[in-house]
DNA sequence: GCTATGCATTGATGTACATCAAGAAATGAC
DNA sequence: GTCATTTCTTGATGTACATCAATGCATAGC
């Protein structure tokens, strides 16, 4: 477990890397994302304080995610082996599965407006800290679409 | 750990249930799914032989998923507590996270055709065993759209 | 200060997929 | 076997969102 200090913009891991690490965020904000064959970026997860950010790829296979720092961030880095040895936090794992399940259900059943509303409720602190285009990327819509959703919601009030 | 025999069509768990169980499939096929506010069904997961099917909801909260048997199925049922006590299979959990991650990335970056092709590659045995409309529901598209994708693919050969 | 770069918004147009409706084919009940 | 139900397909139409392009605002570099 090594503590490192990543300046805003630092790339910690790139798609295709084999030795994927696990990043425990102490302060700041990380993000993990892919870039698809069409060159489009899709944010998989934001990692604020106390989050564990990692690619879930199988051991010894190239990982799928880029991970970088959106803010100056202090992180504890470990290998997966280290983490497994010291007995991982089961509850955290289960919570993680719950989060993923919610995300999948949301992606399958909600439209742009519903996704945005869900996001603002679930991550009220993150929305202040990242550009809207990243929120859009996380939600699976374009910045333009998000802008229009927000416009529409602000009028209704 | 109780062994039960679920006839095709049996509903094992419904959305809103509190005491969500864990189902280890011995033979047959389960499926877990939600129904959204618009009444639409979305398949979250298929559970063939040796799969663990469960709602990942937090303990003591109403779960989100229905679980039923698509074929006559033999299952071992346990509570989450039981499973946690006897030390869960960490590798299985990590593999599960990997699967979820892939699903999320696919939902965000692939169109109907790509999703279908990915599914046939990843689950070649399941596609034979379920009606196409369930495949469509798993992929997050309508049966009509799936039909057209398949038509288009068959012509290209 | 000025200029360059990135971000958000707005409008015009395009498109992938949904929805609706009808018919054909397969499956199941009895 | 026959009838009913479900599944799959096909066509016509609708719509949510993407894409493309232009503009206004910030912010950052120097």
UniProtKB/TrEMBL annotation, chains A, B:
Ranges of residues in domain Cyclic nucleotide-binding: 5-84
InterPro entries linked to this entry: cNMP-bd_dom, cNMP-bd_dom_sf, RmlC-like_jellyroll
Gene3D superfamilies assigned: Jelly Rolls
Signal peptide from the UniProt entry: none
Residue ranges of the TM segments: none
Protein name: Crp/Fnr family transcriptional regulator
Organism: Winogradskyella echinorum
